[in-house]
Design a protein that fits this description.
By secondary structure, this protein is α+β, with helices and mostly antiparallel strands. It has 3 domains: about 20-30 and about 445-545, Aldehyde Oxidoreductase, domain 4; about 35-130 and about 185-280, Alpha-Beta Complex (Aldehyde Oxidoreductase, domain 3); about 150-180 and about 285-445 and about 555-695, Aldehyde Oxidoreductase, domain 4 (2-Layer Sandwich), CATH 3.30.365.10. The protein has 15 helices and 24 strands. It has helices at about 20-25, 65, 115-125, 160-165, 215-225, 250-260, 275-280, 355-375, 380-385, 405-415, 475-485, 510-530, 590-610, 670-685, 695; strands spanning about 45-50, 55-60, 70-75, 100, 105-110, 125-130, 155-160, 170-180, 190-200, 200-210, 230-235, 265-270, 285-295, 300-315, 335-345, 425, 430-440, 450-455, 460-465, 490-495, 540-545, 555-570, 575-585, 640-645. The strands form 5 sheets. A 7-stranded mixed beta sheet has the order 3-5-1-12-9-10-11. Strands 7-15-14-13-8 form a 5-stranded mixed beta sheet. Helix 8 (about 355-375) crosses helix 9, helix 8 runs parallel beside helix 14 (about 670-685) and helix 11 packs parallel to helix 12. It binds dioxothiomolybdenum(VI) ion. The site of dioxothiomolybdenum(VI) ion has 9 residues, from loops.
Length: about 700
């Protein structure tokens, strides 16, 4: 497939084209659009969150607030504009008196200054008829089987006779592995600036939104507000990260537009505060995985069984695909996966970098590490003996699966042969250990993308409604466009970040570059076919990849191997990670500089989850109490030492014309298990959960 695509700009190290704008503060984010962008004298909105987790709103007392200077309006369920579609309980805000979780939006104050809006929101008094809610998810939670997991995956599946095979296995591992609640914390909190514009031809909705998917915000808002999608204009020129939390619209998008709808012709600015993000913009559910592995004397697996219990909100189902990696990474004739979902009166979970794959691969890789100990094999050797010839779940070929090569290269470069038995290395007051784990992530290409190529004097404008959330999409798409049109980079004027541009899928699922890049290649080919190599300015073509872009004969995945050195203080249990290396097989790398940022970024987030990230829910009220960056710890510079990412030199022609497989999420998978493996090797205390806090590291827990 890649044969006829020029590979010249693709593969070159290029700096982000918008880098200078960003570091000089000139790249406008959703909240920063002012008069220069037509945003005149915006009103400021501030949200009021419910203080009960279940029940009804009896009354919202806001007369005094309404009467105060600078306050323009107070909206609640009695006076907010009505939505055309209220099926989705997360989006049906201010539509009725029901409360589904603590922190749910129950009112909003609009004022001419942000201070007045915030102060007003503080003074709104809400009366509730509270009902007892359920908020606890733990070992005793039963749950039930959801119909489907995310990505449409089945919740359970079974091959062979797992129970019989376990009963006859030489080595049997039966342990429980846990991952905690985690919250996405992109640097830029979620924000929307919205205008309900009453023109002579009817209403137009304009938004500057911090989103990973301008087109999906557009279609969702159009549906909810009952207007044509073509009348909704969503712009997201610069976005300060999302990690999945901006992959779908959330309640704040709807409330901002409700506010704008109530004040036609006035811009409304709404920023979700860092604290409010912990209730309103999604999170990763905690998971409890029972893993059973049965192996013969040589460590060859006869059975893999993974039963997970996780949690969702009662008002909207979100079923993390935690069992997904278990289905694709190791071979065994007898296999079982199952998922149970516990429904609670809590905030709605959503996507967080490698949803499912991250917690699921933690459980699987930690279990494999433990099995290696049980069998008495090196952890890499155990994986070598269980390398499948085809995808265990579907029997399809992986195409090019080079997991073992990643392990071997990484082992060599990291000095894996120096790893000793558990608790065998004490340097000063620090136990030192090495660990490893596999990374895995599917290679997705989203259907339905389109791009436009337009000839301009001296070059080409290339348009696609994709969003660059900080990944470097603007830069790599420009490189792909240059090769696709066979012109210099300077001849490409790449436009993205708006729903007024050709339709583009979410910057998520590590599918952006493959899906959008392919659309650009398709549009370029169409352009050349229609207009040749000497077009007139104004000539244009719009096209996208085939309807079913993915070759269904293959189970395309990216793989990787991560290596970690952990040091654990023998008195305090403090864990430090001085060295971390990931070697990845991700298809062709379009831009080494930006790819390294993505892979190291994923590994850094993985390190962060391995050592720190954990949200604590108050069992009585159901809200997250660690709702700021002082109590929800993310890794900082001092925690991140020597993290290196390397990759194999390859191109996967089965994936797309560029030969790439996506790199945004694979770095976080396997990182946590590699840290747990290293700490186990350092201290001799088996780590079955993250974060590896000092008490767990030394076994005081
Ligand atoms: Mo990512 S969690 O697929 O936006």
């Amino acid at each position: 497939m890649s044969d006829d695509l020029r590979i010249k700009e693709i593969g070159m190290e290029r700096s982000r084209v918008e880098g200078a704008l960003k570091v000089t503060g000139r790249a406008p984010y959703a909240m920063e659009h002012g008069a220069g962008h037509g945003v005149q004298e915006p009103l400021h909105a501030f949200l009021v969150g419910s203080t009960v987790s279940r029940g009804r709103v009896l009354a919202v007392h806001a007369d005094e607030v309404r009467g105060s200077e600078d306050v323009v309006a107070v909206l609640d369920h009695t006076n907010a504009p009505r939505l055309a579609d209220t099926d989705d309980e997360e989006y049906a805000v201010l539509q009725d008196d029901e409360v589904h979780f603590r922190g749910q939006v129950v009112a909003l104050v609009l004022a001419t200054t942000s201070e007045a809006a915030r102060e007003g929101a503080r003074r709104v008094r809400v009366e509730y008829a509270a009902e007892p809610g359920e908020h606890v998810f733990d070992e005793d939670s039963e749950g039930d089987e959801p119909e489907k997991l995310n990505a449409g995956l089945p919740p359970s599946g079974s091959t062979g006779e797992p129970d019989l095979a376990l009963a006859s296995a030489t080595h049997v591992l039966d342990e429980t592995y846990r991952t905690p609640y985690m919250h996405n914390n992109p640097m830029e909190p979620h924000a929307t600036t919205a205008l309900w514009d009453l023109g002579p031809d009817g209403a137009e909705l304009r938004c500057f939104d911090s989103t990973q998917a301008a087109h999906s915000v557009r279609s969702t808002l159009a549906r909810l507000f009952g207007i044509e999608a073509g009348r909704v204009h969503v712009e997201a020129s610069h976005v300060g990260g999302g990690f999945g939390s901006k992959g779908l619209p959330h309640a704040h998008n709807v409330v901002a537009v409700l506010a704008a709808r109530s004040q036609p012709g006035r811009w409304v600015r709404l920023a979700v505060t860092r604290q409010q993000m912990f209730a309103l913009t999604g999170y990763r559910t905690a998971t409890i995985s029972r893993f059973r592995l049965g192996a013969g004397p040589d460590g060859v697996l006869g059975v893999i069984s993974h039963d997970v219990v996780e949690q969702t909100s009662r008002c909207k189902e979100f079923a993390e695909q935690t069992v997904a990696p278990t289905r694709h990474v190791y071979a065994a004739p007898n296999r079982r996966t199952s998922t149970r979902l516990v429904r609670l009166d809590v905030a709605v979970p959503s996507w967080m970098r490698a949803p499912g794959e991250m917690p699921g691969s933690f459980a699987q890789e930690a279990a494999m590490d433990e099995l290696a100990d049980l069998v008495g094999l090196d952890p890499i050797e155990l994986r070598r003996r269980n390398e499948p010839e085809a995808d265990p779940e579907t029997g399809k070929s992986f195409g090019d699966r080079r997991l073992l090569e990643c392990f071997d290269r990484g082992a060599e470069r990291f000095g894996w042969s120096e790893r000793g038995p558990a608790r065998s290395r004490l340097e000063g007051d620090w136990y030192v250990g090495l660990g490893t784990a596999a990374s895995v992530y599917p290679a997705y290409t989203q259907p339905g993308n389109q791009a436009r190529v337009l000839a301009e004097p001296g070059g080409y404008r290339v348009e696609i409604g994709a969003v660059d959330i900080g990944t470097g999409a603007r830069t790599v798409l420009r490189q792909i466009a240059a090769d696709a049109l066979d012109v210099d980079l300077d001849a490409i004027d790449l436009r993205l970040g708006s729903s007024d541009l050709p339709i583009a899928s979410v910057a998520g699922g590590s599918s952006g570059t493959s899906s959008w890049g392919w659309a650009i290649v398709a549009a370029s080919r169409t352009f050349r076919a229609q207009h040749g190599t000497s077009p007139e300015p104004g000539d244009e073509s719009v096209a996208g990849p085939p309807k079913k872009p993915v070759d269904e004969d293959y189970a395309l995945h990216s793989f990787g191997a991560q290596f970690v050195e952990a040091r654990v203080n023998r008195f305090t249990g403090e864990v430090r990670v001085p060295r971390m290396l990931g070697v990845f097989s991700v298809g062709r790398v379009v831009n080494p500089k930006l790819a390294r940022s993505q892979l190291v970024g994923g590994m850094t987030m993985g390190l962060s989850t391995a050592l720190f990230e954990e949200s604590w829910r108050d069992p009585r009220f159901g809200h997250v109490v660690t709702d700021d960056l002082a109590t929800y710890h993310v890794a900082t510079h001092a925690d991140v030492r020597d993290i290196e990412a390397a990759w194999l030199d390859e191109s996967d022609h089965r994936a797309n014309p560029m030969g790439l497989r996506g790199i945004g999420e694979i770095g976080i998978t396997g990182a946590g298990a590699a840290v747990a493996s290293a700490v186990t090797n350092a201290t001799g205390v088996r780590q079955r959960s993250i974060p590896v806090t000092p008490d767990k590291a030394l076994g005081w827990e």
